[in-house]
Structures are given as C-alpha cells and as structure tokens.
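Deliverable D4.2, example record:
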Amino acid sequence: MGDSQPQDSKKRAVYEAWTKEQSDALLDILVESAHRGWRDNSGLFSKATVEERILPVLNERLRCNKNYNHYQSRIKWFKSRWNAYSTLLKFNSGFGYDNNTKKFTASDEVWDAYIEAHPKDAYLRTGSFLDFEDLGLVVGNGVAVGRNAIGLGSAIDARTIGVDESRGPLIEELNYDADNEAFVVLGQDNPPLSGSKSPQAFTEVPVESTQRRAPAKRSRGHMNYEDKIKIAIEEDIDEELEDEIETEMEIELSDHARQLMEAAKIIREKAHVDDTRYTTVEEMLATFLIIVGHNDRYCNVRERFGRSHFAASQNFNKILRALNTIAPDMKVKPTSAIPAKIRESTRFYPYFKDCIGAIDGTHIPAIIRGKDVSCYRNRHGVNSQNVLAACNFDLQFIYVLSGWEGSAHDSKILSDALSRPNGLHVPQGKYFLVDCGFANRRQFLAPLRGVRYHLKDFGGDGRHPRNADELFNLRHASLRNVIERIFGIFKSRFTIFKTAPPFPFQTQAELVLACAGLHNFLRKECRSDEFPVEVEEGNVAPDVENDADILEYLSQSELSQRNEANIWRTNIANAMWQNRQISETDQDDQAETAKIIFREVF
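Output generated by the structure prediction step:
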C-alpha cells in the first residue's frame, strides 16, 4: 500500500459575519470610547486600545469572539456607510437631515434626479439612519470627503478681495501723537484739536507730523538711476531728467524685473490692489515670490525689506487673494486644434489627434492639526493634500483642484472635479490621458493593465515593444509624461511645496491655486523653464488588476460606455502595431534596394 497523502494542517478560518446587533453594539462602544478620550492624537483608536479595552467589552456583552481583523473589517464598512451619507449632503444641493425622523430630506424632483445618477443609493430615500451622528463621531474624521477642496474654475472657489476692501491701518501707517496721546494715521487732513480724545484722533494726524524736511542738495554726477529717482521725487526736477531716468531703467531692467512689473500691472488692473503709502504692489509681489519661490519665512522677508512682521504677512495675503481673483483668467482653455506635439510626430498622429492633455494627482505635504489628521495621511504615512491637475502639452494648467485629503483616491477627486458647477469640462469629442489609477472612459484614455507601461520598462537593448498592447502603452506613457514634467517644474519653481507650508490648511489649498495661475503667467512670459523633472514615487501609476478597485458601482449604461471605451482603445493599439509593421517592412525593402544598387554600382 502506498503512503497516504499528508493532509494540509492549515485550514481556512471560517469567517463569522457581523450581525446587526453586533454592529450596533460595536458602534455604541466606540462612541462611548470616543467620549472618554481613548483616541490618540490622530483621532483613531490604536490597536492596543481596541484589543485591550474595546473588543473585550464587545465579546463579553454579546458572547462572541471578535478579533482585531474583524474589527478592521467592520470599521471599513462603517466608513463606506458614512461616505455615502456625507457624499449625499456635500455634493448635492437640496438635501438635509431631519434629527427627529433620522431621515434624509429633499423634494421628489431632487430625489429622482439623484437616484437616476446613483441607483445604488436608492435606499437612502426611504430608510431611517439612526447611526448617522454616531458614524460621524467615530469614523467621520477618518474618511476623505474633500470638505476643504477648492478648484481653479471659471469662478474660483477661493477667497478674493474687492476694490473697496475695508481694512484697518497697518502698523507702519501709524504714528504716535504726543499732544493727543494717541496713535494716528499718517497723511490725513483736518487734524483734531490739541488735547481732543475724539475717535478722529485715531484716523487723522496733525499737520506738523506730515511736513517733510527739505533734502540737502546733492551732486547728480556719477549717480545710478535709483539715486536719480529719489532726487526726482524729493526735489521735483524737470521732465528732461525724468525722461533720462526712464531710458536708463528700460536698459538696466532685467527680464525677470519686466515680468515682475507686468504681473504687478495685471494685479493692479484686475484685482484692484493699490499701493499703500510706503509699500508698492511690486514689493508686495516680491514678498510673495520670495516666500513661495525660496520657501522663506516672514522674519527673513522682514529683514530684507525693512518691514514689520505684520506688514510682511499683510503683503503676502494681499497678493495671495489677488492671485486667486485673477487665477481663472490665467488658466488655459482647451482648443479644437491638434496640439503641435501630436501633429508633428508620426508616433502620436493620428492615433491621439483628439487628445488635449493629461490628468494626474500629486501629493503636497500639509500641516494638519486636530481630529482630521488621520484622513490626510497618505499611503506613505505622510500628511498631505492630494491635488488633481489637468494640463496641456505646452506645460500649462487647464484645471487644478486642491485641498483633498491625502488618503483620497485620484478617481474620487476626478469625480468631484467633474461634478462641480465650475469644475473640469472636457470638450465634445476630446479626451485626456490618465494612468492606471483611473477608469478607462471615452473622455479619459487609460493604459492597458497587466502590460509594461512605465518608460523605464522599455529602456535598454532588447526591451522594445513586442506586441500591440506594449506599443500602445509605450506611446501613451511618452505622451502622458507631460503631467509629470509640469509637476516637476511646479515644485522646483515654488519650493514651498516641497515641505508643508506653515499656514492654516485653507491657505495651503488656496496657495496651490494661486501658484498654478502664476505658473501659467510665467510660462507665457518666460519660456526658459529649465527645471529638473522630479518624478515622485507617489506619482507612479498603481498596478490595478480590475476596475472594482476604482469604481464601487457601475450602472448598465456605465458598463456599456466602459466596454465601448475598451474597444476604442484596442482599435488604436492595433492600428499602431499594423502601421509599425508596415513601416518596418518598408525600411527593410529600402535597405535591400540600397544594397542591390550598391552592388550594381560598385
């Protein structure tokens, strides 16, 4: 008799499904634990807390045997349930929540339109959701919902400033009046009477304090144009010297100074920012550029310009709001013309003739405090904001959406960008290139999965494409690389984004949009973007095996559209491969003909 086959000692564990009673009990225990302050600084329950304090209570109360893996599975289910609730209330106007009936409320027209677009959420219309508030307390802070997201659209979501913005006087505009024993604003008329304690003492100034001492006469020989400007202002010299000054300024100003003055001119005209008594718009803009371009701090800017810390902060925020005001005008709109990079290359034309750019996300380090820390932590364990950007092949931004939590998936942010009133718009018949992190659709062409894709995979001898799928992925990656280049230029130009900007998070999100608009301006005015392309590890396209990791639910119409997009992509790949083989055959024929001619001649 032969030896019997050894039996596998490892048996697959039987999964015990969570019952409604167990789920409700776990949620109640988590709510009580949150009120007791058992969560850590990131707003989550640590593994030790769950195993030592939470699960023993649950197992003893219900006579069950739940472990930490069971707990993680149920927390994931809680998050998906809370995400459905928060998405309903955040992205759709007309919905509310009744605390008495514990139901979501809306008119029939609003419900019909929402259910038509989200068939899987039909249960939200009639059900009662007693756990809405409890889920918000337990997992609401650990789910990415984009509560702070702002987009660069036709009407920007960021804060702006107006022409007649009311503000108090700056520190440098105040002077102490000994007679009135009060701080007064320089440069006002009708001073108050001596000894008056009226409120006007804080807005007006005696005439004596505004009188300037006449400057001493100086020789104008061997003076540069800056000294001549000072004399022109102080001595009110004739127009001939003023013309001489302007001529010398035109000669000595560098290209960067011209760009600074041009940007300041646009800010004056479109954002209606005016010079203060002692600070020009050019100085405000220079302060902003030094901070974002060199990742400098207010203390260094204060020493450089001789301003107070308060004045440096005011100047920075003025320019930030002004740039957010004019940023929509600086964004690039897609055109119907075929991009030159595609039109002039046989590798891309005519296969990508309707492509207008590329879309991808990038992570920017962020400073987060309080209970929202956990949902901003990305898969590398770093707190960040996930920024979605669309650009053209001329390295200019078409659309930017900032402020999303670092744990959010790129496809979720893209859905948000498409659903916003002034969000991302794809012209009819056009499309963007995306990586494997997005679903393949007619408007967003993704590479083929399970096939070599990255450019480094095709480098070296003997690693050329071997079939139609690999050839398509190679050319797709070569063309989509423009989004990696613009991210590299953006972070090299504005080095403040290489570390977490030291501002409130809302300002961090607005800063991305302001710098995106400024990038487009500099791209038009200065074409020498000689910055290294820094491809981050986090930007590498994930190897997604199926579409279930990207979309939770697909309706019948969406499945049909997906299948049509896949067929369209396959046809492009086959056309590329066939034309490549024909081209190689022609090259072989030409080489053989050349050899025959060579033999006949020689």
